[in-house]
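Fig. S4 source data, part A: sequence.
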Amino acid sequence: MRPCVCGQILDVVARVLTIAGSDCSGGAGIQADLKTFAVFGVYGMSAVTALTAQNTRGVHAVLPVGAEFVRAQIDAVADDIGIDAAKTGMLATRAVVLAVAEAVRAHRIAPLVVDPVLVAQSGAPLLDDDARSALLAELLPLAALVTPNIPEAEALLGIRVASIANMRDAARRLVAAGAAAALVKGGHLGNGDAIDVLYDGSDLTELRAPRIDTPHTHGTGCITAAAITAGLARGQSLLAAADTAKRFVTAAISGALPLGSGNGPANPLAWLDGSRNRSE
């Protein structure tokens, strides 16, 4: 229990940090992560790694935040509030990747979910080429889970992923590369059910949901990783957190918001509509 300023006693709330870029349109990045954390009842904090000027039509400009300031943000919340779990998203530069890895080690931040954001849905690059090797060498070994989509898995591993069997192989390779577990997301396969493959180092599990025919999927990778991070912070097992996140993102896509004139955002608040979604 912790006393609040008004003298009431509040239950301890899980403290969750997102280390990611800002999406001014609100559909992805730290904005989507913080919405997701709120939906799952955890206390969300953020360390901003980059500013982006983007909307539903694409990314128009990117301004990376200096690595020292990214580290300062992480230090500030870790030294005062504490961190029960964290996730990474857009890291932009090699220097930021290295600074984040150093901070995770220094503060013993765990569990850590690494969402290897490489390219925006519009095709705009969000991680420098020379940062990929640093992500693999320095950050992946610290990850309780890495959550690439198919293009990200291909870019990280240098292999072709065109089937469920390829996804299983990619998940195994990511664990062999250092991650404790891997979730390879199959939304880009483009036919049949939407299938993700989870490998925890010993067991392979396929997470299935009906594929929803909509262009409004902006932010789905961010909110999937954020939902898993929230679940881990609340004490769920990895499989339970991943299963809940799969149902959560399916609801968010089903209730997506057709805003703007491009690919609208998935809607994290759709999870709150209907008790069937909230059962765990």
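Fig. S4 source data, part B ends here. DSSP finds nine helices and eleven strands in the chain.
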